[in-house]
Amino acid sequence: xxxxxxxxxxxxxxxxxxxxxDRDAQISYCSLQQTEAQSVPAVAGTQQYxxxxxxxxxxxxxxxxxxxxxxxxxxxxxxxxxxxxFSGAVEDKxxxxxxxxxxxxxxxxxxxxxxxxxxxAIAPLDKIEILMFTAAEADDGVxxxxxxxxxxxxxxxxxxxxxxxxxxxxxxxxxxxxEFRKGGSVILEFEETLKYYRLEWNRRTTPxxxxxxxxxxxxxxxxxxxxxxxxxxxxMEELDQQVLEKVVKIFQNRMVTSVFLIGSGFQxxxxxxxxxxxxxxxxxxxxxxxxxxxxxxxxxEKFCPTKEGREHxxxxxxxxxxxxxxxxxxxxxEAYVALLDAGIDWYEGSCEKEFYLESGxxxxxxxxxxxxxxxxxxxxxxxxxxxxxxxxPGMPERPEGATRLRIVMELKSPEILHVKTVDLGxxxxxxxxxxxxxxxxxxx
Length: 444
Known about the structure:
11 helices; globular
């Protein structure tokens, strides 16, 4: 009976992906009963999933509208329209609304709360087990904004995470049919400017390592279409040729089996020659809910890992690409203690352990990179290990094994490991000296 209740409780939980951007937001979800991710419509009964990231306030009233409803009120009298909520929050901007100063973070939090009102038509918010936010970038400013929004939401029993669009792309593809992963995969995203993501799989490794290459083409902006039909046709032909040239370079000498076209720039049919080239021997899809679905699948992997999830690891730009640990003596035998594993987000990479210093005035950190490895070693599953010495000058003289150390590790970036070592002494016999040593280690 207890097992049945436990299963029933898990079956009632939802894993939610929330794609947050300056132009649009989107929510997708899945569960143990509905493992294929579904997107929440911005308008009930439609397939319109994009929620415009805007607010509209009625003058002299505490009445706020959001998303498509707010867009519909833009030309209404007696109201105030607020946009650029996400970038404003990241840049810590403020604005005056009817004599009251609002910071954009507060306005963005209000918008997110209203978005969750749409999800409440699917299930109560307390049924969200894991919430995965995703955004185009994963820099410090974006992560800090997401953390503050989460604090304001008050989701006490929900585990909240964050990942970039790159990683959401990876999890989306991981949950598609295996044919999509036989070769490389490409996203062409046309939102303001053209950019692409290319996801590839290194099958020589165990687990299979996945990574994304990306590029933004600033010289290929989304055009403002001319009202004149002849001029508009000329614009389309020029853009088609420009995009075709870039796509040919992206696909050249590469095996690409699946292509996803996303963004408002692809909503108008202008890419005749480009599409003809892209579709040669490839599966091509057009849509706009890939990132939110990928975030929902990522949340699902955290709740209930799949075989595919265990067999693959994603090493994106914000991921730690090196296994970090220590070689210690355990019951007279040398043993390896893992401290930080490759594949974690660098901004979540921290650990704290206590050890006894056997001898000397220092110890070595074991580093095993999973990238930039010679192919023959990679194929054999043999990764080169190298060691970085942590020096402890000024350590008091004590017998062997009579010094206890607290070692605190924290990633400052995907390539920089900060190590803090604290002398804890050895009880009352050898009191702590109060010495603290700090050192940065470059991860290559």
